[in-house]
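Let us practice reading a record.
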Amino acid sequence: MNNIFQITAWDETSYIEHQDGSKKSHAKITQNYQGIIAGSSEVQFLMSYQSKTSALFVGFEVITGQINGKSGRFTLQHSGRFENGVASSNFVIVPNSGTEELIKIEGSGSFKSGESGQASYELTLVISP
């Protein structure tokens, strides 16, 4: 099975805009996951656009679901970029953010967007007993 997520909602609001097309914005996003992660997430990104086609973003994503049959919630910290229609990010699992059966989850990964609000992701993780 492929590791993908699908954006289900995107609400972005600019809080600084300049005539040259640069701006600062805040995006609230929801997503559904399949693959290693089976579940859904809520993401909040702060975005810095240098132009209409180029931006850097940082943020936190709370994922609720299952990994290898274990249920819980955990948080990712993102550092990414958007360039020429492609978004990519490196992320880490925030230490001590896991709950329930995922309380001792650790790891990192990345994603790269495709078309239609879908992205593939890679995840390296450890879930200690």
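A brief commentary: The radius of gyration is 15 Å.
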